[in-house]
Amino acid sequence: MGTTFQDRTMTVPEIHPEHKEYWDAAAEGKLLIKQCDSCGEYHYYPRVLCPYCMNDKTTWKEAKGTGRIYTYSVMRRGVPYAIAFVTLDEGPRMMTNIVDCDLDKIHINQVVKVVFKQSGDQDNPGPFIPCFTPMSDE
Amino acid sequence: MSIKGMAYIAGAFEHPTRKAPDKSVAVLHAECAKGALEDAGLNVSDVDGYFCAGDAPGGVLSMVDYLGLNVRHVDGTDTGGSSYIAQVSHAAQAIAAGKCNVALITMAGRPRSEGRSGVKQKMTVANVPDTPFELPFGPTAVNEYAMAAMRHMHEYGTTSEQLAWVKVAASHHAQYNPNAMLRDVVTVEDVLTSTMIADPLHKLDCCVVSDGGGALVVVRPEIAKNLKRPLVRVMGAGEAPKGLSGGKVDLTYSGAIWSGQKAFEEAGVTPQDIKYASIYDSFTITVLMQLEDLGFCKKGEGGKFVADGNLISGVGKLPINTDGGGLNNNHPASRGGIVKVIEAVRQLRGEANPQVQVKNCDIALAHGTGGGLASRHGSATLIMERV
Ligand SMILES: [Zn+2]
Fold first, then answer.
1. Nearest CA-CA partner of B143 in A97, A12, A130, A112
2. What is the pLDDT of residues B206-231, one digit of tens each?
C-alpha cells in the first residue's frame, strides 16, 4: 500500500548568470546557499545582493544538506509528487520535493537530507535539482 | 492624505456568463465596461481614468484604444486576483489628487474555455528571479494553498471538517444566485468525500474555473450625488505584498494582517462593525486564514469561527460571499477580486439576492489574496459604507 514515489519530468530551470556556481555544485551533489558578508544572514533562493540589508557582497556556502519538513502536499492528479518546504539546518526554508519514499508517510518535522534529481528528460536534460528524502520514518 | 470619503463606487457589473467560447477576452472587457457604466448612469465619454490588470489583453494601452476611451490617468497595477480591490483604492487616490473624476476598472477572462485550471504546473516566464528555484518542484495553485493548509492544521489543529464549512456556506448562498456556476447545496460530508486533489485539499475545497468578468466605476463625490444609484462610499483601504522573505518562510498568515490593519485604521472602524464581508475564496483555506488575519477571530481560531454555519447569511455571525463566491459562483480569469467588490456593493445597496441580503448592511469589507499563498501574494482590503 502507500503511494510509491515515481520519477517525473521536472521543469528545466532557466539559468541566470549569477547562479552558475550553484548549478555546477548541484551537478556534484552539493547544495549551495548564500551568506551575507555584512549582516551574516543566510538566505535562499540565492541573490547577489542580500535581501535583508541590500549589501552587495554575499558568499556561497555549502549547506550541510540536512533539515526538517516545514510543510508539504502530495499532488494526487497525474503522477503523484510531494511538494514541500524544508527548513535547512542553517535556517532558511526552501521549496523542494520529497522523493524516494512512500509519499503517504511524509510528515511535518520529519528529518530529511538532500538528494539531487536531474530536470528535463533524455532529449532535453537539464541541471540537477535539490530534492530531499527522509532519513527515517520518524 | 486619506481616501476616506474621497470617492464613491457608482457602478458595478458582473458579467452573467460563466462559459464564453465564442467571445474574445477583449469583448468580455468591453461588455463589462458597458454594463458598469449603464449601472452607474454614466457615458463612456465621462470616463477619464482607466484601470486594468494582467488579464487585460495588451494592457492599458490596447484596452484604452480598443474601448475608445479618452483618459488622462491609467493604472495597470497587477497583484493577481486582488488587483481590482487595490485599484478601487488607487482610483480613489487619483480622484482625491485631481487626476481623474470617473475611473473605470475592468477585468475579464476565459480560463474555462481555454482549458486552464489550478492543477496545471506554472510555466517559465523569462527572467523572473524566483522561478528557477521553484518551477522544477511543480508548484500549482492547489498544492501551494494546500501547503499553507497543512501547516495551519499542524500548528492550530484545524480540521478538514472545519475547512469544509466554508464550502457549505458558499453553496447555501449560491443556490439563490441564478448565474452561479454551481448551485447545489453541499454538506461537510460531500466535501470530505470529494476527490483529493492535493493533500489536504479536496475538489470541493477549490474554487470554480469560470469565464466571465466584471467592471467598476469609481467617481468623485459630487458626481456620485448627482446619479440615481444608492451611495456607496470608500472608507479605507490597505494593500500588502507578502513573499518568502529570503527563506524566513512563515505560511501561517497572509498579507491580510497588514492590509487589513491599514484599512481598518483609515476607515476608523473595527471588524465588529462589518455587517458583510467578501473574503477571497480561491480555496477554503484562503478564507479561514484571511478571517484570522483581518481580525474577525484570533490566529488559530479560524477553524472554529467558520464552522457550524457561522458564515451563512441569516444563520451565522459573519455572512460572507453571499453570491456564492469563487467556490460556487464565479472566479473569472482565475482572478476573483472584482466580484468580491461587486457583491459588497450589492449588499450595501440592498440589491443582493433577497434570501441572502444582510439586514441594515451599512458597512462592508472586500478582501483579496492574489497569487500564491505559499509563494508570493498581494493582499488588498477595502472597506465601504452605505451613505
Ligand atoms: Zn545582509
1. A97
2. 999 999 999 999 999 999 999 999 99
